[in-house]
Amino acid sequence: MIEHDSLIHELINITTAPESLQKKLNEIVESIKARVNADGCALLLMDKDHQSLSIWSSKGLSSKNYHGTRIPRGHGVFWKIFDEKRVFAIHDLRNEPDYFPHPELGGGEFASMLCAPITHSGETLGAFCVQNREVKIFTIEEISTLENIAYDLADSLKIMRYMHTLQEEASVSLGLKELGQIIGSRAGLEDIFDDTISHALKLTGAERGVMWLTGQNGRELAQSAPHDLKTREVMESGANGLLTTAAGTRQTIKVDDVNTDRRYKGLDAVAKRSLMVQPIVFDGYLIGFILLADKKTSIDGFYSIFSDYEANILASIARMVAQAVVRVRATRNLQNALEENRKNVEELSILFQLSMAMQRAMNLDELLRVILSCVTVGKGLGFNRAILFLVNENTGSLQGMMGLGPDSAEDAGRIWQKLEKHEGKMADLVQWLIERDPYEIYHSAFNKLAQSIRASLTGDSVLAKALREKKAVNITSRDDIGPGDADLVSMLSCSSFAVAPLVARDTALGAILVDNLYNGRPITESDLRLLMRFTAPAAWGIENVKLVERLAAVNKELIDLETQMARVEKLSALGEISAEMAHELKNPLVTIGGFARRLLAKISGSRTEARYASIIVKEVERLEVLLRNTLDTARLKPIERRSVDLNQIVNDVVDFYRRSMMEKNIQLNIALSNDIDEVSMDPAQIKQVLINLLVNAMDSMSCPRHNMPRILTMVTETAPLDRSSVRLIISDTGGGVAERDLPEIFNPFFTTKQSGTGLGLSLSKKIVRMHHGTMEIDNRLGIGVTFTITLPCYEIKDSSVEQI
Length: 804
Description:
Layout: H1 4-16, H2 21-35, E1 40-46, E2 52-59, E3 70-72, H3 76-84, E4 88-90, E5 112-120, E6 123-132, H4 140-152, H5 154-185, H6 189-204, E7 206-214, E8 220-224, H7 231-236, H8 239-249, E9 253-255, E10 275-282, E11 285-296, E12 303-304, H9 308-359, H10 364-376, E13 385-392, E14 397-404, H11 409-420, H12 426-435, H13 439-442, H14 445-451, E15 454-456, H15 462-469, E16 473-475, H16 486-492, E17 497-504, E18 507-515, H17 525-602, H18 608-634, E19 642-644, H19 646-663, E20 667-672, E21 679-681, H20 683-701, E22 711-719, E23 722-731, H21 760-770, E24 774-780, E25 784-792
Parallel strand pairs: 20-22
Antiparallel strand pairs: 1-2, 1-6, 2-3, 4-5, 5-6, 7-8, 7-11, 9-10, 10-11, 11-12, 13-14, 13-18, 14-15, 16-17, 17-18, 19-21, 22-23, 23-25, 24-25
């Protein structure tokens, strides 16, 4: 006989004793087990959400008595007890159809069971359950005793559970408050992740967790997995569909048993028993997820399910995290905006200063040098090397105009060290850009390489593409290089570079190519944007300088034309006077010539008088020819063609000036081809052309500053592959024509001599053109000039050719 009253009194004392709750419960369960003479006893209490039963205490069930585990609603005889609110005595569990062998309560170790519900005011709070390993028929006294114990302890257990709930809620509130304060002070998302997961695990009892944010495309942006739950495992498992469902419903989703849940497959790769997913939502927008796995119990390696209360805790955490994440993102966006604004101000300052430097450039070469200096110096755009290309409209290609950059890594170090001394103040840098010595640039190997590069405007090269699309192109690796750029990459010895077009008035003027060959720094999109911002004023600077140079050239032509017109007027008047004087001198000269010939005819032998008379006759004849030529020129005599021997004309002119060449110490090399037929030409006018060229050559080699060997070469030959024309080549070693004078030498009245009309070369070219021939010049500065005259062997009828 069990002493019912003493047991009740003992148990009531236990529930009110000022000792730990768990110890009290263990003492209650131990007492019931002893009084009812059972092999095992357990106390199950209903959770707050009324969806699961938790084992608060157990004794003697087995070596695997799992305190703190939960039995989901609807599983087995235990929930039948709660639904029917009556005692269940089962003497043989193997024959009980409603019995479910819960591992939490010993599984199949027990053969009989007695359960009594704990009720209070119609509410089922829980149940006491005793079990035996042998089949047993429980007595009425044992059933009554357990039922009375459950009834008598209902008040105390309700108070106990209420106090425990208050403590738990207070602890959770403090934990949530602490989490809110911590993540509210965090400046980085990574710290927020770590703090959130650690608090979520502590407040819910989960073993592992992960949190990540998603962008608008649903892709992962950041994650935190301090407890070895990796995002890859989540996304490759059935949790992918789980997240999709949570994202659609915006609700917490719980999975009590990943091994038996049929909604999602593959969750056993994420959790061992249970998990729950909470979407992170702010202002209706999904920004991420929190996933917790496996509710821990008091026994290592054994896990239970998550309750609705714990799901509510996770939802509260998600709301706080959403605000913290949005705050951090807003702060970062603001910081990024401020940083972007700072960069924009800095870039505008750089562009302003560089524009100032470009505006002070006086010519195209100086402007190109300033532009490339701006692109390569550290206070500017800071690229290692740069090449500037301009469009050549005559050839339809891009032509490398100038390159600026080190020729080697050692050269790079020396130049950068030198630049550091000039980059202290931007104003000093601008001055340095203008005054920088161009010698080092113009004579560098890289500049010569740049000037040798040509690219078609219609090809598939990077340069052509940038000009066609008027967009910058960034080549980051060899994979971006097409067949059309193989030669360019080989010349640059660099497979990473960028090209930005120079565009003004919606017209591509050229391009700038940049690379970082020596420091290896990747060219970023930010670098490319700054380069494109710089190329706009650079292109306008080039356009303006070209316009100024064209205006200067036109202005010079106008000035030269006015000068020439003045000289034409003077020479016209002089020509009229010369023609009149020649006409007046002709008659007396004819008379003198006549008398001289008579005297010569009457004087015989070798007398001195005969020699003097002969000289008078020859000089008079020479003067008559001179006067006749003067009159012919004044009258604009037309061409009088006849077949003549070109070699004979050359010999006549050479013989006439041979003595002068000897006096000036000029060596004559003459090579006349015997394979030349007679040529249809005006011999007097062609002879005049040869005289003009010969005299100019002699004058150039007789200059006091001339210190080269004086060699004059004359060659005649038939044109290659064409025997219908002949060529006459005249070369000298007079040092050549200055580059600035070369475009002017065929202009009328242009001369570099102290005396002379400047009509010789102009008239010569006109005579050759009248013969349907060509006159070309090969100027070798520092060496000499070669004129090549090509004449057709036969007369060509063309009434459009003007007459001299």
